[in-house]
Design brief:
Helix content is 19%, strand content 29%. It is an alpha+beta fold.
C-alpha cells in the first residue's frame, strides 16, 4: 500500500510538472508531491502504516476491517492472546488486571484500522443467535447428545482402557485422559526445564513417535517426545510455525505434513520423516486457521483466517493442491478428522458470518458437505480418533470461560453419540495429544 501511494503521488507530480510553464509552478508541483508522499502509510506523517492514519487508501482498507482486513485480524488475535496470557498470571488483584488491559490496549493501538474502521454491514454478535439452515438440517439427524459433570479433578483411580496423554501450555499440567474423562497426573520434562516449551506447538505422530513443531518460543524448532521428555532435534523448519498452522501424519504415519507459516498469506508446506525436512507443494490459497485432515486418503484443508481463503477447500495429490467444493460457511479455527471410509469431519471452530462458535459437526463425503451432528461449541480444538471414538480437547475458548473435552462416538460415517466427559479449568493454545498403549511409559510422577 505504501508503494501504491508513492506511485500515485509521483504520477500526479509528473502530470503537474508537464503542464507547468514557470519555475513557480514547478515549485508548487514539488511541494504538493512532498506533502502527498509524506502522508502515505509508513511515511513521515503515518509512521505506523494505517494505524492512526487518515489517508484515503487506509480508509478503503479499513472498511469492515474486523471481517476483511487480514493484517488487522492477525494483529488483533496476537494482542488478544497475549492479553489472555497476562491475565492468567495475575493474582487476585484489580491492579494487575488493569495493567494487562493497558498492555493489551497499547498492542491493539499498533494494529491497522484502529479507530479508523468504517462499517458498511452489521457487525457480528456473539449472542442472540438465530436458527441457521445448518441447525435446521440436523433435525433429521438421529443421535444422542449428553453432558457429563462439569468438573473432573485429577485422580489416581483412572480407567485406562483408553489412555491419551494431554500436553497443555504449561508442561506441569500434563495429564493422562481416560475414555470417561478421568485424569491422572503425568510428569514430563523439557529442555532447560522450560515449563512453556509446548505452548502453541503443532504436533504429529511419525513412526509411532510424537513430534512437536514450532510454537510461541522457538518457532522453527522440532522436538521428539522420548521417555517422558521432550528432546529438541538439531534440524529446524524452514519457516515459522505456531498455533493456527497445521500438522498431520500422512502415509501411514511415515511422514508429517506441516503447513501454513506464521505470516500474512502463508501457504507453505513441508514434509518431515522423523529425521529430515523436505519442501512440499504450497497451497493455492492461504489456510491459516484451516487445519489439516485426511479426505479420501489425501491431506485436505478447509477455510482460513484470511479473506483470500474464506470457505476454500483444497486437497493434496501427487501433482499438488487442487480445489474441492467450498464449505457452506466461513468457518475457521476448527479441527479436521478423517474417517476410514474416506469421509472428513470438521469439528468446532468459529463462524465469522454470525460471530458464534461452530456447533455443527460437518461431514465432507463424495464431494458434498452436510451436517452430521451437533456438538458443544469448541474453538481451536485438538482431536484424536481411537477405535470408534473421537476425543476433542478444547483450545482457546470463545468466551474464556468454558473449555470442554468431548467424546464423539461414531459408527461408520454416522455420529452415534456426543458427550462432554470433562472440562479444563482454563484455556490452552494448542493441546498436543498422544494415544498411549499398554507398552507406553505413562510418566507417573515419582
Amino acid at each position: 500500500m505504501s508503494d501504491q501511494c508513492s506511485k500515485e503521488c509521483r504520477e500526479q507530480y509528473i502530470s503537474c510538472f508537464a503542464n507547468c510553464e514557470s519555475s513557480y509552478c514547478n515549485s508548487e508541483c514539488l511541494e504538493v508531491y512532498q506533502d502527498c508522499d509524506a502522508s502515505c502509510p509508513c511515511a513521515i506523517n503515518c509512521p505506523l502504516g494505517c494505524a492512526n492514519c487518515d489517508h484515503p487508501l487506509c480508509e478503503a482498507q479499513c472498511e469492515n476491517a474486523h471481517e476483511n482486513n487480514d493484517e488487522y485480524r492477525l494483529c488483533f488475535y496476537d494482542a488478544l492472546f497475549e492479553h489472555n496470557l497476562c491475565l492468567k498470571e495475575c493474582p487476585a488483584s484489580a491492579a494487575c488486571h488493569k495493567l494487562c488491559f493497558d498492555i493489551y490496549s497499547d498492542n491493539l493501538a499498533t494494529c491497522p484500522c484502529i479507530e479508523t474502521e468504517t462499517i458498511s454491514t452489521a457487525a457480528p454478535t456473539t449472542t442472540g443467535k438465530t436458527t441457521t439452515e445448518a441447525e435446521t438440517a440436523t433435525t433429521s439427524t438421529v443421535f444422542n447428545s449428553t453432558t457429563a459433570a462439569t468438573t473432573s479433578p485429577m485422580s489416581t483411580g483412572t480407567n485406562l482402557d483408553i489412555a491419551i496423554m494431554v500436553f497443555r501450555d504449561n508442561i506441569d499440567d500434563t495429564y493422562i485422559l481416560d475414555k470417561d474423562g478421568g485424569k491422572t497426573p503425568a510428569s514430563v520434562t523439557s529442555p532447560n526445564n522450560d515449563n512453556q516449551y509446548t505452548r502453541e506447538s503443532l504436533f504429529a505422530v511419525v513412526k509411532d513417535e510424537l513430534f512437536i513443531f514450532g510454537g510461541l518460543w522457538g518457532r522453527r524448532k522440532i522436538a521428539k517426545f522420548d521417555r517422558c521428555a521432550f528432546v529438541e532435534l538439531s534440524i529446524q523448519l524452514d519457516f515459522d510455525i505456531r498455533w493456527l498452522g497445521a500438522a498431520l501424519a500422512i502415509e501411514n504415519q511415515s511422514k508429517a505434513l506441516i503447513c501454513f507459516e506464521y505470516r500474512y498469506n502463508g501457504k507453505s508446506c513441508a514434509l518431515f520423516d522423523g529425521t529430515t525436512i523436505m519442501s512440499s507443494f504450497s497451497t493455492n490459497y492461504p489456510h491459516y486457521a484451516g487445519s489439516l485432515g485426511l479426505y479420501e486418503g489425501n491431506p485436505t484443508t478447509v477455510g482460513s483466517l484470511y479473506s483470500d481463503g474464506f470457505r476454500k477447500v483444497e486437497t493434496l495429490t501427487s501433482s499438488g493442491w487442487s480445489l474441492l467444493p467450498d464449505h457452506p460457511q466461513n468457518i475457521k479455527e476448527h479441527n479436521l478428522i478423517g474417517l476410514e471410509t474416506g469421509a472428513l469431519l470438521l469439528i468446532g471452530g468459529y463462524n465469522s458470518e454470525d460471530g458464534a462458535l461452530g456447533k455443527e459437526i460437518w461431514k465432507l463425503e463424495k464431494g458434498n458437505w452436510s451436517v452430521a451432528g451437533i456438538t458443544e461449541g469448541i474453538k481451536m480444538p485438538s482431536s484424536i480418533k481411537i477405535e470408534n471414538y473421537i476425543f476433542v480437547v478444547s483450545g482457546i475458548g470463545f468466551n474464556y470461560e468454558e473449555y470442554p473435552i468431548q467424546r464423539i462416538e461414531i459408527e461408520g460415517n454416522d455420529i452415534k453419540d456426543v458427550k462432554t466427559i470433562a472440562e479444563h479449568p482454563n484455556d490452552n493454545s494448542t493441546p498436543q495429544l498422544l494415544h498411549l498403549d499398554s507398552s507406553s511409559d505413562f510418566c507417573h510422577p515419582v
